[in-house]
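Appendix B. Raw example, untouched.
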Amino acid sequence: MALVSDRCDSRAEATDVIAPDGRVTVAVITRDRSAEMLRTLDALTALPERPPVIVVDNSSDDATLRVLRGHPSAARVVRPRRNTGALGRNIAVLRARTPYVAFSDDDSWWSPGALRKAADLLDAHPRLGLLAARTLVGPDRYEDPINAVLAASPLPCAPDLPGRPVLGFLACACVVRRDAFLGAGGYHPLLFFGGEETLLAYDLAADGWGVTYEPSLTARHHPEPGGRGGRSHLLLRNEVLTLLLRRPLPVALRAVARLVTAASAGEPGARLALREVLARLPAALARREALPPDVESAARLLDGRPCAEGRGAP
């Protein structure tokens, strides 16, 4: 019953804006969540912008595939031969034919008019590479904790950018300039999934692109109650790998030492995270690229600030 209510609610919102807008493709990754995928496709189809939708199906079950193939949205479906995790977003961006790409997961979508406004902002600000949106959670639309973290970013405002400069975002609630995303390499293969946003924000900023939080853009997120289990070690692992890949070695090694201490104390997920960091350590060191001084200074300004559920520094 809640599913029907949410789908009707999405259509009701769409009356505020009428004309379609073809500047933004919506990229969705999914895996084994047919009911959630149906709700998301319904909501995206109801958007007044009528965006093209590309779904990367990360080795889902047959039920999800039936939803994707039977839905009237005419979404383009890409089925890699294996689970690509967050890298599925890279696949979708490569196939997009619009200048901008918005990301959704199979449990998230965009509010009517948000994609149009994002495209207007990206059109008006040529240095803007990524817009992070305000995220409202569940049918009650409560504020995701990351909104407050991003809004409180201490990074100084830039005169040629809208919103609040940040070095983090929520992956299912952002819009990117396609050329900037591809130029930065997209999501990094070493991280695969979990807390992958900070590294992309670093790399966009290192290329000279602006990354900002714009609360006038709204994304909706309906995670399953309790969330998906088994992610704590991924967030711990990828936080350390991100530092090893981009930050000065003393900063990265202190993070490794903290992880060793956590593993010794038996903290949940820490031992597995440490094993996976050590397994990836040679690759991380081989792919190290130090941040430019201005981006490193910004990252240092953010060090120690809260990260909402491991989603990256503000």
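End of appendix B.
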